[in-house]
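Pair request: fold both.
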Amino acid sequence: MANVIFLTLEQILAIHFDQIERYSGSHGVRDLPLLESAMQRPQASFYGEDLYVGIFDKAAALMHSLILNHPFIDGNKRTGTVATAGFLHFNGHDLKLTQKELVEISLLVESKKLDLEQISKWLKDHSI
């Protein structure tokens, strides 16, 4: 796989700030170690082998962790979905979906109705 561009902590914090400013809610990080864990998960490896091999698997790991770790006081689903879209964009893929689909995927992830493989497939199916 070509060099993957991962989001930085500063970028994820900026996404969170933007989402709260646009749509309301409470600013702030609830748990910094959980946020760092979520943002590092797509980069995880074991004995030098990536745990999440494809770009959509990495994106799914990011979305899953940002939503379910609840690292922010508010806006975890919004931040998780927008950060995932940004991650894919930086790596040559753009999500093509409606606002309704964006809300639906975040709710499905939050309710644990999709596993990582299903999230990855959904992201791939909705990318151009």
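--- second member of the pair ---
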Amino acid sequence: MRAAIAVARRSREKGNHPFGAILVDERGEILLEAENTVETEGDCTGHAETNLMRLASKGYDKAFLSRCAVYTSTEPCAMCAGAIYWAGVGRVVFGMREAALFEMTGRDPKNPTLQLPCEEVFARGGQTVSVIGPVLEEEARAIHAGFWNPTSNPNPDREG
């Protein structure tokens, strides 16, 4: 988990959102890592996990990926959970819960958080993805400190 958190820290240092993910094999060896690239690439789908799954699906088949795990600094959003599911990865281990992220980001338009746990996304599919987390949540949470503006109103014409 600390390797994924380190990738998230690097992502933030590069001007991106503070998220990182790694792919490990069944022996625990790190195979790939990816960081968030939303800002530097100008691509709203450039989340750490989707970037990681693009790399993983090009390099490994689903049978192999089913025995691997994604370690991610923050619980995968619905989009990232879908990417992990379709890549065929068998396990997800996350640092900070999506709900805890929402507490930090609030209405910051940089991160319109869906309050939808990844386990709920995986439960709707026909293949099993085991989920472990939160793990080292305080360490994962610390990378986000001061990054988000939770009082921003993404819709200034609307009250609330």
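Observation on the second member. The longest strand covers residues 30-35.
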